[in-house]
Amino acid sequence: MTDPLQPAPGRTPEVHERKLAIPDHLSPFQVLGENDQALAALEDVVPDTDVHVRGHQVTLRGTDEALRRSEHIMRSLIEMAAKGQPVTAEAVQRAANLYGDDRAQGARLEEVLSRTILSSRGRTIRPKTMGQKSYIEAIESSTITFGIGPAGTGKTYLAVAMAVQQLLSKQINRIILTRPAVEAGERLGFLPGSLNEKIDPYLRPLYDALHDMLDPESIPRLMGAGTIEVAPLAYMRGRTLNDAFIILDEAQNTTPEQMKMFLTRLGFNSTMVVTGDVTQVDLPGGQSSGLRVVEQVLSGVEDISFCRLSPRDVVRHRLVSDIVEAYGRWEIRPGGNRDARRRAEKGS
Description:
By secondary structure, the protein is an alpha/beta fold. 41% of the residues lie in helices and 16% in strands. The chain has 13 helices and 11 strands. It has helices at residues 28-32, 37-45, 64-82, 89-99, 109-113, 130-141, 155-168, 195-213, 218-224, 256-263, 290-298, 318-332, 338-346; strands at residues 16-21, 49-54, 57-62, 118-120, 123-125, 144-148, 174-179, 228-232, 244-248, 271-276, 304-308. A 6-stranded parallel beta sheet has the order 8-7-9-10-6-11, with helices on both faces. Strands 1-3-2 form a 3-stranded antiparallel beta sheet, covered by helices on one side. It has a two-stranded antiparallel sheet with strand order 4-5. α3 (64-82) packs across α4 and α6 (130-141) packs across α7. The longest helix is centred in the first third of the chain and has 19 residues, at 64-82.
C-alpha cells in the first residue's frame, strides 16, 4: 500500500514559494543575526528550504511542510528582533524545537525567551524551551515541584536561579541545597581526606551554579551566616526548614525512605524543588529509587507538581540532546535493556 504522505514513485515533492516582509523599523541584520548566522542555521534545521533575502523581503522555497516550519521560525526571529532580543543560531534551534513541541500549544518563542528569572553578573537567566518555561511556572505556583529529565535540561540550574531570585527579593531568608552522597563506583569511606573534603565533589555542581549567579566574594559570607547552606542529604534529618528555598538534586539516588525524610522537612513559607534523572540511578544493590516511587505515592496531592523535561529541553551543546536520544533508543532495543548494559559495562 502506498504511503499517502510520500510522493508517488518517480515524482518529486511539489515546491512552493512564500514571501515574508521584515518590518521597515528593523534592519535585516537584526533579524538574520551577526554574519547571517540565523540564515545559515535556518537552512540547517530545515534542509528542504531555500532562503533568499533581498532588502527587507525574505523568500522561502520548499515543500509545504518545510515552508510551514521555516515560516514559523522566521516569524519567531522577527518577533525576537522587534523585542530587542539578540537573534542567534541557538534561537533558530529553539524556534525549530518549539514548532514541533506538542506542549507549545501556539506559544511563540518570544514569549518563552522574554521570561527573565534573574539578571546577575552581566548575564540574564531565562527559560529557553517550552518545557523549561513550564518548569519555572510550576515552581512559582507549587510548594513542591519535581523536575524530572535528562542531563542538560537545566533542572538544577533553573531551580538555583529561582532560589537566588527569591532570596534577593526577600521572599525567603535562606537557600538550602542538598544531594545524596552516592555516585557510581565510589563510596565516601574510600575517598581520601576529611569528611568535608570527601563530600565536596558531590556538591560541586551546586557551588558552580551559585558562582554563576552571585558575586563569588559574597558566597563565603552568605554561607558563613547560614543564608546559603550546601550539605549532603543526611544532614537534613531531624530538621524543620522554614522560610527557605530547598533544592534536592540528583534525587534518583535517594531511597524511598530518604525521599520521605526529605519531603517531611518542609516548613512554613518554604518552597521545595526535587530534581533528578530516573535513567541514571546509581544506588547499590538494586535498591529502589525514591524518585521513581514518589510520583506513585504523591500523584494527585494538591500543591505538588511533577514536571517532565525531555531531550527537546536540552540546552547544552546540540550533541548532548543527540546523545540522550541515542541512549534512549539503545535502552529500549532488544539487547539494549538495563541487564544488557550491565553485562557490557563488565565486559562480559
